[in-house]
Amino acid sequence: MKNDNTNSGKCEEEFLEFSRRMADGFGKSDSRFITQMLAGISKSESVLLSDIARNSIKNVGVKKSIERFSRKLCSFDSKVFEKNRIELTKELLPKDKLYIVDDSEIVKPCAKKMEGLGYVADGSDGHKVKRGFFLNEIVAIDKNKQPVSVSSRLYSAQEKEFESANTITQKAIKQVIQNTGSGAFVFDRGFDDVKLHSFLINNRQKYVIRAKSTRNIITGDMEMNIHEFAKLLKGKYAFSINFQQGVKAHLKASFKQVYLPKMPDTILNFVVVYGFSKDESEPFYLLTNLPVNDKQSCLNIVGAYLTRWKIEEYFKFKKQAYKFESIRVRTLAALKGLNLFLTAAITFLAILGNSCLQKTLVLLAQPLQPKVTFMYYRLFAGLAVLLRKIFLSPPKIKPKPKSFIPKQRDFYHYLRYVKNQAI
């Protein structure tokens, strides 16, 4: 019990310091709102305003709290809030930064009245077109080898200022470079576009992009399809990768210098990898401007790309653990605000994962597997145990007395009351 109380106290101290720094630059009212939102999301494990209200405010009706939260979400200074979060995030990042960029979606198939509601391809349901919103995310790999968001932008194609998804991605990358510094950016094949290659090179950024099979490249004096060229490289280096489910063996990789037809003056390194798909003869291909000159540097490129799967787990965790797709606010500003608060709540998990409380939280989570590569589920479960002991316990409701006498408004009503009692 003593240890539990000590750990609860440490967790509460961490949270109070986190909320204080997140509220830096805000007034008293906004600071209280920020603390209540962060505490409510963390304790309720939900982004529903009703759940947040029940778990963050004492002696105030849930309906009034929801109305207040809705107003505040549309009016608080999200730029200052996000700036404070990034300052905290920078403390978790290593010197050599690895950024992973990807897009996702928030699906709201039954919604009709939400502002900016458009159509998205649901990646978890065969890319079927459904109502929803887009989500652009850039995560960095922290010192604990976990993904922590350095940019999270929820947007709608129905907005007046919307230009294109590529524009939003490029603006987010520029912001990340400005806020947390340069690093190596990793992209999946959906981002394989000459404009993005050119943008990253012009901004002097290192990157790894999985190439599409329809892309053409120039090798020597000949232009050919990237898939046909990959077949000519049978795999010079054999290696294996340790996954959580076991070891994936019989992998091979090779590299070669190539050019893009529309960028003939820029040397890129082409890395081909065999053995990941069910058909081991079918490779995947990576294009990078990072140096590749031996086996180790070639495998480093493969490892950097495979780290990209952490953002897939991050999206899954963000949606499922906190019921993100069950969000119920009508205005787009409130929706964007809730996304920022949820991102901040997950950042708090990353802070705990890099603190002395990490082992305690893992023990409290009672994990079934000894080791995992994605830690947030354990931190999330362990934190839930500690939060039951701290953060604004629910108000105590006094029971009504057994003999309740109504208020005597005047002599006439008093006589009626006495007469009824006599009967």
Helix content: 40-55%
SS elements, strand count: 12
Helix-strand topology string: HHHHHEEEEHEHEEEHEEEEHHHHHH
Low-confidence stretches: 392-398
Keywords:
12 strands; 423 residues; Transposase Inhibitor Protein From Tn5, Chain A, domain 1; two-stranded antiparallel ribbon
Description:
The protein has 14 helices and twelve strands. A hairpin with a 5-residue loop joins β3 (128-141) and β4 (147-155). The longest helix is centred in the last third of the chain and has 22 residues, at 332-353. The protein has 423 residues and is of the alpha+beta class. Residues 392-398 have low confidence and may be disordered. 42% of the residues lie in helices and 22% in strands. The protein folds into two domains: 2-82 and 332-387, no CATH class; 92-313, Transposase Inhibitor Protein From Tn5, Chain A, domain 1 (Alpha-Beta Complex), CATH 3.90.350.
In short:
The protein has helices at residues 2-22, 28-44, 49-54, 62-75, 78-90, 165-180, 194-202, 226-230, 295-306, 309-320, 332-353, 358-365, 376-387, 411-422; strands at residues 98-107, 118-122, 128-141, 147-155, 184-187, 206-210, 216-219, 222-225, 237-243, 246-260, 263-274, 284-288. The protein has 14 helices and twelve strands.
Secondary-structure blueprint of this entry?
Elements: H1 2-22, H2 28-44, H3 49-54, H4 62-75, H5 78-90, E1 98-107, E2 118-122, E3 128-141, E4 147-155, H6 165-180, E5 184-187, H7 194-202, E6 206-210, E7 216-219, E8 222-225, H8 226-230, E9 237-243, E10 246-260, E11 263-274, E12 284-288, H9 295-306, H10 309-320, H11 332-353, H12 358-365, H13 376-387, H14 411-422
Parallel strand pairs: 1-5, 5-6
Antiparallel strand pairs: 1-3, 2-3, 3-4, 6-12, 7-8, 9-10, 10-11, 11-12
